[in-house]
Design brief:
Blueprint lengths: L17 H15 L6 H19 L7 E2 L27 H35 L8 E7 L12 E6 L13 E7 L4 H7 L6 H9 L11 E4 L3 E5 L4 E2 L13 H13 L9 E4 L5 E4 L8 H5 L5 H4 L3 H13 L7 H8 L1 H12 L3 E4 L4 H12 L27 H5 L10 H14 L5 E4 L4 E4 L2 E5 L3 H12 L2
Parallel strand pairs: 1-2
Antiparallel strand pairs: 2-3, 3-4, 4-6, 5-6, 7-8, 8-9, 10-11, 11-12, 12-13
Helix pairs in contact: 1-2, 2-3, 5-10, 5-11, 6-9, 10-11
Length: 470
């Protein structure tokens, strides 16, 4: 049974089956051929059709979708520039328009499969919150416009209505708001999940943290259906503007040290949520780039913390780099007292886990994809030297795989030929390149192909011990 909900995004509620609606629209477009005047409408209707069809299959009201227009950025359409879309062109030649039409077929195909995969995941988690005697309903789906990956439509914020006390997950809630991600984020669950044996919970006990403890998140993961993660109501670091001098709490120092010890580098201004009734505490909501060489050797001034309080962030990083034994962090003080116990748990956290890494800012990749689409770069000339740790100015100084995850003690074994092939395959799909990092072995995979061998967890622990003099 569908839930009554106001429509949002670029399509409205309709009782007609999606295939009938779209057939009528397709006939209108076909009668006048696709050109600059109707390209926006054409793309919106195709996306609408995919989402409605998937919602129809899984008995979810399509009117609960919001922010659907953010998917237009995946198409990098001529004359259209949604937020974060990268380069666009307002007056393309007929030749370039034809090239876009040919390229966009692959993107539309990915959006179609992604819509069904997203709704399949939502349906799975909905079933996990249902029981024989009660049903759970989806009341809101907010698309976020995050980059497309190998599955789904990026991260989505989803709200459910259920019976309190029923279901396998979020059992004690009747209104549930979560983030659903297309990947199995097992490393995030292992690092800061709310379950008893997560690294965060263990560290809190290990260091005797209470009010300044590392914050945890309710989450579940699945190899096929991705991850469902508690939504944190709070303030993103980017909302603090240029003041950068919010009230300091010791929990901030503990979170910075925790990030350093786990090698987390994706804690930018959108991935730290500051929340709490008695002063703000940092919630880390993403562990994309973990066990990172640069972060563990020279902690960076990550904007998730520095946007909140730049001076205190820099002070804690200076302690880590130059005087770790006198750090304000109880975690670090306890590491010096019981190093073997700590590193044994750190290894246990990463063994058997894989994480996703992004070796450069996604805007870098987006601009390269745009240059390919708009015929400013020869497709056959696309090669990205990910081996290099110090890239030329043309690559804006951002590290490649060697800079992100280091080099294994047995060597990096860079597979340049395969990497060039996989980047080209991603560009064909309009997809930002993402990599899978096996923390136990150090192997880094791109679309399932071995590309580079970074540090294993054993290598990382050796480096950490050396840095801390342990």
């Amino acid at each position: 049974m569908y839930v009554n909900q106001k429509s949002s995004g670029f399509f409205s509620r309709s009782k007609n089956k999606p295939q009938k609606e779209y057939a009528a629209h397709k006939a209108r477009i076909s009668s006048g051929d696709l050109d600059r005047s109707n390209i926006d409408d054409y793309a919106k209707k195709k996306i609408e059709y995919y989402l409605k069809s998937a919602a129809h299959k899984y008995r979810i009201d399509p009117a609960v979708f919001e922010n659907t227009d953010l998917l237009l950025k995946c198409l990098r359409m001529p004359g259209h520039k949604p937020e974060n879309s990268g380069e666009t062109w307002a007056n393309p030649s007929e030749e370039k328009l034809e090239k876009w039409k040919e390229w966009s077929l692959k993107i539309f195909s990915q959006l179609k499969s992604g819509a069904f995969e997203l709704l399949e995941s939502i349906h799975h988690w909905k079933q996990e919150m249902s029981s024989k005697n009660s049903k759970c309903e989806v009341t809101r789906i907010q698309l976020t416009g995050s980059d497309l990956h190998g599955r789904g439509l990026g991260a989505a914020i989803v709200e459910f209505s259920k019976v309190q006390g029923e279901g396998k997950i979020f059992k004690n809630e009747d209104k549930v708001k979560v983030v659903i991600k297309p990947e199995d984020r097992n490393i995030e669950k292992s690092l800061f999940g709310s379950h008893g044996d997560s690294f965060a919970n263990w560290v809190n006990e290990f260091a005797g943290l209470k009010g300044n403890r590392i914050r945890t998140l309710d989450m579940e993961t699945h190899e096929k259906y991705g991850s469902i993660i508690e939504f944190i109501d709070g303030t993103q670091a980017k909302a603090f503007g240029t003041n950068n001098a919010q009230a300091y709490k010791k929990g901030m120092s503990e979170a910075i040290v925790f990030s350093f010890l786990a090698g987390l580098t994706d804690l930018h201004q959108e991935n730290i949520i500051w929340s709490g009734r008695k002063g703000r505490n940092p919630y880390m909501i993403d562990a994309d780039n973990a066990l990172n060489l640069t972060a563990m050797n020279t902690p960076s001034l990550q904007s998730g913390f520095s946007k909140y309080n730049r001076n205190e962030t820099q002070t804690e990083i200076n302690y880590i780099n130059n005087n770790p034994q006198n750090s304000r962090s109880r975690i670090l003080k306890q590491v010096y007292k019981e190093p073997d116990k700590f590193f044994e748990m750190l290894k246990k956290t990463f063994v058997g886990k894989k994480g996703r890494i992004v070796p450069r800012r996604t805007t870098f990749w987006g601009n390269n994809i745009s240059e390919y689409i708009y015929d400013k770069k020869n497709y056959d000339d696309i090669t990205i030297p990910l081996y290099a740790s110090n890239l030329p100015d043309a690559f804006d100084g951002h590290p490649g795989l060697k800079g992100e995850c280091g080099e294994h003690s047995l060597g990096g074994s860079y597979n340049e030929k395969e990497e060039t092939k996989q980047i080209r395959e991603d560009f064909k799909k309009g997809q930002i390149p993402f990599y899978s990092y096996d923390f136990e072995t150090g192997w880094v995979y791109h679309n399932g192909k071995k590309i580079w061998r970074g540090r294993s967890i054993d290598d990382a622990i050796t480096d950490l011990r050396a840095k801390l003099g342990l």
